[in-house]
Amino acid sequence: MQTKQNIAFFITPHGLGHAARAAAVMAALRAKDPGLSFELFTSVPVSFFQQSVVSGLGYHLSDSDIGLVQKAPLHADIPETVTRLDGFLPFDSDQTGALADKVRSLECQLVLCDIAPIGITVAREAGIPSLLVENFTWDWIYEDYASHRNLLDDHIVYMKGIFGQADYHIQTEPVSRTANADLTTAPVCRRTRQDPAVVRRALNLPLDRKVVLVTMGGIPDECSFLHRLEDHDTVHFVIPAECGDNEIPANVRFLPHSVGFYHPDLVNACDCVIGKLGYSTVAEVYQAGVPYGYVMRPKFREAGVLAAFVEEHMPHAGFSPAEFSEGTWLERLDELLNMPRDTSKKKNGDSQIADFIFDLLATS
Question: What pLDDT score does 2 carry?
């Protein structure tokens, strides 16, 4: 294999789950070859990836994907999504041509797409192999919005065609729709780096108290239940978000993104996680083995698949959006905290994908 290898990543900015999965793959690749370089095409801030891969990152701010427009963690804005898709699809040939030139000039040997389909088109124009990594694709998600199908049908057909053009295809469990993929892996997440006690000390969290992580997957939300947390004064709560103008109870710690927290370590340092169903949260909580109070996402097709995986493989309790926002999930907090942690060793799909990619690079 060549001494210098470059891989382009086209990553959807929808939430942070796809970026987290891509970062996990980069870290696994870097562990196998420290000289490997990555060129990122996305609007996810580069600082997110630098938490996992500290060097060898080229960053190219670009509108890589629309996905779903979300103005709240649990609700998508479908009319706005349609409007943005109308302006984004079909892909502009000048844009894809310029990106193809850029990828070629960077001497990339492979284009990996999670799950931004424009990367597949760019790879074809550049004459470079493309690899699609997914647990769902956008055409499958859009199919579920029946009330807007007349506005989405053309986009569904177009995207399905683009996704089908990928040279290689990997699906990661939990898979929403099984396809004829080259590889199906275990859930993929970034690996922990610090001992839970070290993390707690760094955040001034007690070692002898229960700690609960409340997370909405990187999308801001109003903490309308905040005042109820102080009633559980023997438990400490960590919320990765800005606190706004809220009066913060003594047992609550807000972590703004500027703090630079590493989410897998937070999950692993806690005794329970409360949060919306999202791929990276599910994968990280699954790997850590902590109880998961999951919040259903209404009218999002992936949610049912993720919930089924959680209920089969993880200590859990399920909550509706109303139960979350009103804070009634706190009535079952003791139940969750008394569930035993799952300490069984679990496979992480990051290394499976890294091995697959190295086999590709070795034969290209």
Answer: 46
